[in-house]
Design goal:
The complex is a heterotrimer of chains A (337), B (427) and C (332). Chain A has 337 residues and is α/β, with parallel strands linked by helices. Chain A has helices at 13-16, 21-46, 60-71, 85-90, 95-103, 137-150, 169-181, 200-203, 228-244, 272-279, 283-293, 299-322; strands spanning 76-79, 120-122, 127-129, 156-162, 185-191, 194-195, 198-199, 220-224, 248-253. Chain A has a 5-stranded parallel sheet with strand order 1-4-5-9-8, with helices on both faces. In chain A, helix 7 links the parallel strand 4 and strand 5. The longest helix of chain A has 26 residues, at 21-46. The N and C termini of chain A lie far apart (62 Å). Chain B has helices spanning 151-160, 178-188, 201-216, 229-246, 253-266, 310-325, 331-334, 408-423, and strands spanning 2-6, 16-22, 29-30, 35-40, 45-49, 54-59, 66-68, 72-78, 97-98, 219-227, 272-275, 278-281, 287-289, 291-293, 296-298, 301-302, 339-342, 362-374, 390-402. Chain C has 332 residues and is an alpha/beta fold. Classes of the chains: A alpha/beta (337), B alpha+beta (427), C alpha/beta (332). The interface between B and C is large, with 62 and 83 residues. Strand 9 (97-98) of chain B pairs antiparallel with strand 8 of chain C, so a sheet runs across the interface.
Amino acid sequence: MGPEGAEIAITRRHETAGISVEEVLALYTQMVLVRILDERILVLNRQGKVPIGISCQGHEAAQMGSAWAALRNGPCFFFPYYRDLALKITAGVSAREALLSFMGKAGDPFSNGRQFPLQGADLRRGIIQLSNVVAAGLPQAVGYAWACRYLGEETVVLAYFGDGASSEGECHEAMNFAGIHRVPIVFFCENNRYAISVPQRKQMAIENVAERAAAYGFPGVVVDGTDLFEVIEVTRRAIAHARTQGPILIEAKVERLSPHTTDDDDRRYRSREELEQARHRDPVRRLQQYLLQEGILTPEQDRAIWEGARQEVEEATRYAEASPYPEASTLLEHIYA
Amino acid sequence: MKVTVELPQVGESVVEGIIARWLKQPGETVRQYESLAEVVTDKVTMELPSPVSGTVLRFLVEEGAKVSVGTPILEIEAREGEDIAAAPLPPSAFVGQLMEDVRPVGPTGGGPVEEAAEVAAPMERGIEASELSILGETPQPTKPGQPWYSPAVRRLAREHGIDLRQISGTGIGGRVTKEDVLAFLSRMGARDEEERIPASPIRRLIAENMIRSAREIPQAWAMVEADVTGLVRYRERIKEEFQKREGVRLTYLPFVLQAVIEALKEHPLLNARWEEGTIVVRRRLHIGVAVATENGLVVPVIRDADRLSLAGLARAVQELTERARQNRLTLDDVRGGTFTVNNTGALGVVLSRPIVPPDQAGILTMEAITRRLVVPDGDEPSLGAPLTLAVRFMMNLCLSFDHRILDGAEAAAFLRAVKHRLETIAP
Amino acid sequence: MHERAMGEKSVIEAIRDAMREEMRRDERVVVLGEDVGARGGVFLATQGFVEEFGEGRVIDTPLAEASIAGIALGAALKGLRPIAEIQFADFAWPAFNQLLGEAARACYGSNGQVRVPLVVRIPYGGGIRGGLYHSQNVEAYFFHTPGVKVVAPATPYDAKGLLKAAIRDDNPVIFLEHKKTYRLVRGYVPDEEYVVPIGKADVKHRGSQITLVSYGLVLHYCLQAARTVAQDGISVEVVDLRTLRPLDRETLFDSVRKTGKVLIVHEDNLTGGVGAEIAALLAEEVFEYLDAPILRLCGPDVPTMPFAPTLEDAYMPTTEKIVGALRRLAAY
């Protein structure tokens, strides 16, 4: 029985999406970890231990589902943007590493403390994100994908960006080139309808970013970014398409459940009602409900997962806090190759 | 018509020369190709041929001046009706020259451009530089009237312990310039414990070459002893007949040259030069032979020395030596050497550490032949048995080499090859 | 009509040869830019390339400089060695985000994990009646940025050798080609393989009284000026920087220690140009050897040389202006 007494059908939605029980549980466990980690980062910022916190709450299913699908469908490479914490965890970054990065400590795999959190490159995990300049990574992702094909590889590149980035000229230029040359790339837009405080209706004259794909000669598809299974299914098909036929644009409708960053106060431009409404689409809660309803998880097992995540984040926090900052002597290294 | 003669580009690396001596004076007539001046470059003294026939008008630089290639040095009133071959400014090998008769690219790209008016070479526009205040005023010392000394002047004064008030200045506003201080120092030179000898042009050029070699080439050194008893006897036997037949003295040098040439063929790395990460192996063998003259060491080159016989080598050595000592070497004589041999033995020396010339891989010296007591090869000393001793004629062969191009093993192999050839000459 | 000597090439021919040879040598070298394919480049720099190497390696891009740079950067991140052409320096501004914001910082920002073996060729400079938007000098902006190398050859020999070095370099190299030198400067270029190292200046005319530092087109006017004043017994040493970043400090210091007087000449605007940095550097490092203030003769602080010939000529450094400056400096 569901919350209002109505009968809830068992859908076995994960099976139709081609995901085993073990896999969906693993995804959920990881998603819970990401959520706890995300919350911890915001708290650490308020304690003065993390200079800037960039939350991915509300984006988890879109990021994790797409990354999970990509990693299981042939060679792939990621060009994420600054909000993609969940994606990076899915790609293999640990909670410890994430916290080292947010604190700017030595041992941060992306830049050894030189950059904003989780940006630079983590080549072991197949990630490049050179900066937090909005949309700058998109032409780079296109060039990278083009080069992969030039070298005879089967690699598909996934380039992530938000609704705000879609206004940048470089986004247009990247998609234009990709369409002309049928570059093996999946453009993945995480549309949370806000670019800091600027709402979508002031960002573009259209409803869906995906509509623009037609202007570049390739397909665009809208997906409910809070539905993990839909994201996985669509991404799988998109990757197959990109590998053989050329670019495709996925627009995942998500919610930004937190302010833009810890330097933002979204109460200035979003009403309490709106924020409450958004919480109904929380992808973590959504997946939790699904697992409980389908009987895949009992409440005790679920609590254990959350407890496990808390412990892992706790340990990671202590580890990162105890870790040193990079030596001042490293300042002048790697300016040139 | 008036023709201006400039110092021409006379060799790959030559960028300047010293006008050592005018051979014609203003008012004298000169035929085309007749020598106008003696010029000392960093390799050799050479004579500058006149491009035209006519009358020398005036000198544009002083005798003894050091001038860069392309500098106008004198003017000639050319005889009318003759072929006026005005010396063009030749392009330096790697400098390139501005073309005056080529269509430049159009404003929006290349390709053939319509018959637009050529932009005149900027030199022809009569715009006064001073109209533009790019530089502002002529630089002045900030406190005219008070003695003001630049950092360079103060440093020189400090280094040489000079009181600057003793020096009058020739710079703007009576400023004491660096040149003023240097001139003062050289005038002061003849005092105290020092005698200042201005270096001759050729000494200065040798110095520059040596510095360049020391700075650029990491040099290593190796030596072998050669038993030239057979060679000594052989030469003794044939030398008179050789001189009668060939008209030239037979010294040990041609033998060594032959051995070196054969060894170079087997060890081409010694016939190379280093060029920014590339070893450039020279296919032809141009052997420089050092000659001591009263002015200094010169190194004329025997080109394609591998094509010469023993007699040919002896003749080449004699001819070059004569011309060197008479100051009649041309620039071609000293250009393009690929390896160098120096007969230091002629000076009585038994061990030398020569300096690898710039742009070569090695230099070999042949030392004085001495009579020494040696244990001949093949005799194994065993306990109790008496040692066999013999008096042999021994010649040391020393090799300095560019360690960027080759290592000790290769150098040693080359030396052994030279030694082997010399040791197998027998009467 | 000038007769071609053997082995003599123009600057554009030397550049073309360098690219062609490197493309033959290494399959990872690709060319992107507007009109580089069938047109062979608007300056014919890539003439014959698409025929030899195919459209897969010589890419006619859309008219979009930011993405020319960004896509080339992405390809370089993957390990190709792209040569991106920005058709005119005047159009490079949209590419600055990708070149200086991103490419210059990629190695540093990833703690050395990624390298960017990218060459960006940019025709620049005036004196060709190009007006404000086909004549710009943009070197100072690149010169200022750590993480890029900046090269500006003046001769065919240097252009070929430096472009090869740039293509083989694992760092982003901004390769500035003064468009007036493309056909106007010819010089000897050996057939044999050679490379000119990035970061080494070249003394193109030896002298003892004044160090004259320059690069690009006006280097040739400096050489003319040096030869002219030699008649008056003024001995000028002309240093061609060849590479702007990194500067060859040692060659500059050696020369100034010898001469004590410095004149820096460049076409780019005076304020904040490359000459300003060199002047500061010399004042700091070889102060004790200076016998006169360090002088600069540069383009005035005008937004690029205008279209009309009187205005353009008023802007451009010329042999005559340089001669005047040398004479005044010699007399100091």
